[in-house]
Amino acid sequence: MIKSxxxxxxxxxxxxxLSLKFILSIIMDIDEFLNDSFxxxxxxxxxxxxEADLQALTRAWINERGAPEILPWPPNNLVERVTxxxxxxxxxxxxxxGDMDPKTxxxxxxxxxxxxxxxxxxxxxxxxxxxxxxxxxxxxxxNEDLRSRLSETEIAYATRHQQLLHTHYLSSFLGSFPxxxxxLNDQAGGISMISGPDEDTAVFARGTGSYExxxxxxxxxxxxxxxxxxxxxxDVDRGEVVIARWSDIKExxxxxxxxxx
Length: 261
Hints:
By secondary structure, the protein is mainly α. It folds into 3 domains: 2-136, no CATH class; 139-190, no CATH class; 202-260, Ribosomal Protein L9, domain 1. It has helices at residues 2-34, 38-42, 50-66, 78-97, 102-135, 137-142, 144-147, 152-172, 246-255, and strands spanning 202-207, 221-227, 230-236, 241-245, 258-260. The strands form 2 sheets. It has a 3-stranded antiparallel sheet with strand order 4-1-5. Strands 2-3 form a two-stranded antiparallel ribbon. The longest helix is centred in the middle third of the chain and has 34 residues, at 102-135. The protein is flat, with a radius of gyration of 24 Å. It comes from Botryotinia fuckeliana (strain B05.10). Residues 91-170 form the GINS subunit domain. The GINS complex plays an essential role in the initiation of DNA replication. Has a role in chromosome segregation. Component of the GINS complex which is a heterotetramer of SLD5, PSF1, PSF2 and PSF3. Belongs to the GINS4/SLD5 family.
């Protein structure tokens, strides 16, 4: 009985240490891939490996959280591929759950910790995107370019969300208005009722190197900075962190020449 109790305490301590390691690993990995050279990212390699997917997912999560508007859905079926890996990992965990062998149990704890790591990043990415859709649903549905940034599931969610919201408004107060004033996307007088995110929001961004000037060590990129005292062009080297308006660096982020921090 005492041995069983001591084993339970050891497992709990190990679980705590692994959880702490999980949190630190995310912080360390973020710092690690932020220091990766841009040329390494451009170098041909197997982009379907778990390591490459983890790096791409972390980058997408950080950029999505920092950008005021929704970014294009991660390309190359990244989310779908990661989701499939998570499902297989869950199945593996379920297979090992009934085995009380100490060696297998240790491996199970490691698998569960790694599983939570992936799930944390996926949840963070999806929640950041859903929050932006909730805040400006019509803005993303009414613009074809912005609509193309959403996944099929997000489009279905946004459409249903807007339908429910409009129905609620109609039953609450819009129903008593004239029919000409019941539209939520009215643009009478040249003024649109559809609100969007503030693209002039200040963001912190880090240069990763110019794609056009890629020559082995990454070239600097030119960023237009706008201020009260006038506009100026700033050359941002790889690894340099700057604060700028989102509208000024948006294209650089989408091309991979800069990333948000």
